[in-house]
Structures are given as C-alpha cells and as structure tokens.
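TA notes, week 10

Several of you asked for a full example with nothing omitted. So below is the full record: structure tokens for the whole chain, then the designed sequence directly under it. When grading your own attempts, check the secondary structure regions first.
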C-alpha cells in the first residue's frame, strides 16, 4: 500500500487542526494534500502518529483522536 506522492504539507482547518483522508478514491471536497490514496481492500491497517518536539506540559492530558471509518 505504498503511495508515490511526494507532498510534504497538508492543509489546515480554520481551527488549526488537520484532517487526513485515507481512501482509494479522493473524497469530494478534499484537497490533494489531505488525501492519502490506498489500494482498496480489507487490510488490517494501523495508523501511527509521530509528533516531533511536543510541548510535554500541554500534551500531559492530551490523547490522539480516534480514526473514523466512513461508509
């Protein structure tokens, strides 16, 4: 499930957050930089979030958002 995309940035929401859409086809209204194309299939998929140089005080009670499967 490799992607040959070379994008190094993503678009941000007005609130400052980001949304990455993982799908076989680009969802309507989702910019290219926020879409991660994958091969369609029923895979056991894990998502890993890397956070570089986090503010440990602010992240003490923070937990990552749960990924949502959309039909």
């Amino acid at each position: 499930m490799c992607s040959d995309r070379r994008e190094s940035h993503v678009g941000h929401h007005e609130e400052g957050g980001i949304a990455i859409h993982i799908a076989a086809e680009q969802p309507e209204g989702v910019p290219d930089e926020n879409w991660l194309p994958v091969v369609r299939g029923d895979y056991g998929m894990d998502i890993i979030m890397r956070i570089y140089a986090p503010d440990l005080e602010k992240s003490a009670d923070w937990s990552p958002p749960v990924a949502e499967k959309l039909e």
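The radius of gyration is 14 Å. Use that as a sanity check on your answer.
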